[in-house]
Specification:
The structure is a single chain. Helix content is 40%, strand content 17%. By secondary structure, it is of the alpha/beta class. The chain has a single domain (8-125, 187-259), classed as Rossmann fold, CATH 3.40.50. An eight-stranded mixed sheet has the order 1-2-4-3-5-6-7-8, sandwiched between helices. A hairpin with a 2-residue loop joins strand 1 (8-10) and strand 2 (13-17). Helix 1 (39-45) crosses helix 9. The N and C termini lie far apart (36 Å).
Length: 263
């Protein structure tokens, strides 16, 4: 994580922002993710965009509000609080799911959408119960399964997930959020998405397999699908150079076509 950018806290909003005059590019992390997932995107996009990474309050929402709807409400309040012009929204895994629901509610605030390993159609994650809480090896294997190359899964990352599932309060929130995501199937709603949408999927994603990317591509009218090989559920972390090049090129093309008035 680039040290030049400190986390900011404003009321209930925790976020990181690079600033500058560029259009806002909002990055949304997944269920076990956080601000550190996007270090390579900050470095790559900060010269052209104002890169913003809000913390999704999965662990801090009041229990009665722990759900996808609660996270979407938080994101909507954050974007309203900041007063951004239409945003470029990118979400990985659960972050993609939150982003799509936000885009459906606030189409006027969306310039583009990028989804990577997004939940919302099908996901095979931790299942509906907590993993064996004291079993470090099990958590290590589960965390490694997010990546094609297990080496990408650092000890820090595994320790973080292990600590989360061993905290009863956090573990409960993880299950409630995951169940809410499974209930919120988007198949019959994706035709509402009118914004240009980029889909970037890992060929070896076992959590939201490649066919999920293909389904999103079929169901979202203005969408373009790219696969990255030797890559699983978190392309922006595992293959950052390829991911950034695909997304950067696509954003430029969308910008050019919209400035020429071409749909």
């Amino acid at each position: 994580m680039p040290m030049a950018f400190e986390k900011k806290q404003e009321g209930t909003f925790e976020y990181l922002e690079t600033g500058g005059t560029g259009e806002p590019l909002v990055l949304l992390h997944g269920l076990f993710g956080g601000l550190s997932n996007f270090g390579a995107q900050i470095e790559y996009f900060r010269s052209k965009y104002n890169v913003i990474i809000p913390t999704l309050p999965i662990m801090t929402l009041p229990l009665r509000k722990v759900s996808l709807a609660g996270l979407v409400d938080h994101l909507a309040a954050f974007i309203k609080h900041k007063g951004y012009p239409p945003i470029h929204l990118m979400g990985n895994s659960l972050g993609g799911h939150v982003g799509i629901l936000y885009a459906m509610d606030h189409p006027e605030n969306i310039a583009t959408i990028t989804l990577s390993g997004s939940s919302g159609l099908f996901e095979s994650a931790m299942g509906n119960s907590l993993p064996p809480r004291k079993n470090y090896e099990f958590i290590k294997k589960k965390t490694e399964s997010t990546f094609y190359d297990p080496a990408v899964s650092s000890k820090e990352l595994v320790d973080e997930v292990f600590a989360t599932v061993n905290d009863r309060n956090k573990g409960l929130r993880i299950i409630m959020t995951a169940k809410s995501a499974v209930r919120h199937n988007l198949a019959h709603k994706l035709d509402k998405i009118k914004a240009p949408t980029l889909l970037v999927w890992g060929n070896q994603d076992t959590i939201t397999p490649p066919f999920v990317g293909e389904q999103f591509n079929e169901l979202i009218a203005d969408s373009e699908l790219h696969f990255i090989d030797k890559c699983a559920h978190a392309p922006m972390m595992e293959r950052p150079e390829e991911f950034n090049a695909i997304m950067g090129d696509w954003l430029e093309r969308v910008r050019e076509s919209s400035s020429q008035g071409v749909k």
